[in-house]
User: Fold this.
Amino acid sequence: MSKKISKSISKGSRKGVLAYGVILCIASLAIAITILAAIAPQVEAEERVVVAVNAPAVVEIGERFVARIDVDNVTDLNSGQFDLSFDPRVVNVTAVKDGEIEGEVVSAFKWQFVDYDTVRVLVRMPMGVGVTGSGYLAEVKFEVKGESGDKSALALSRGLLVDTEAKKINAEWMDDKVTVGLIIFDTGAGTFPSISGTHEGIIIPAIDIVVHKMYTYPSIGTGGHSVYVRIWNDELELNESATWDGFIGDWHNIVFCEPFTLYAGKTYNFIIETGSYPQIHHTDVLNVAGGTIKCKGFTDANGHAHDNWIPAIKLW
Assistant:
């Protein structure tokens, strides 16, 4: 009887130990999963470094612009390099300037063309010094070579970031692109009746507009044009004028001696003297592509005054 009891107790003890061991394993696994779950997002956040080209979506013909090479969430960065490729028929690199991360200068100490469409840029901090945070590795300066509608990718390759222990920093490298476009102030075509005369009014751009010339919409079958234009803003000390060259070459346009900028939200006065039969908008206020134009008065070639004639023009 005592042997049977002893065997029974022995079996029970083994089962208890086994159950206890299983419980310990499950508990340990649960704790490990909890710890990993807590650590994983931190690891992911620490490793997610992004380097991205940051350029204007639209650039103007002949414009000079800057593309920043942004970096986000980097840790102990000491040095790095990258290649930046582009379409040289559309844009071209003219210079590369230092970057900045959390107020610390990142020296773009060397850059060069490695091909007709690619520059290589090397950046660094002082020896043994690391910088942590977000900012930009360098500023790449471009000039626009293309025409309206042209596009160019700004593509990163051969990118490398290194920390203070000479270890590679994993990063995601992202490209950008630019499109050459004309930013214009355009009333669009007008209507008839029409007559030449002197228009006075104001222009309020909705966006910054670089003005090279002014186009006048002619009535069909006529030589409608502008003879003279003056645009000014006393507060901004702007006073620009241009005169027609006659029925030669691109006679629909009056060309200014130097380009100038009309700034968004500012009010500019204008006087436009027209010849023949230009198209007209018969209203006193017109919201157009690029802003608003208002009529302050129009005196026609016969000396009659009007308060709702706006010339059909395009500033570009």
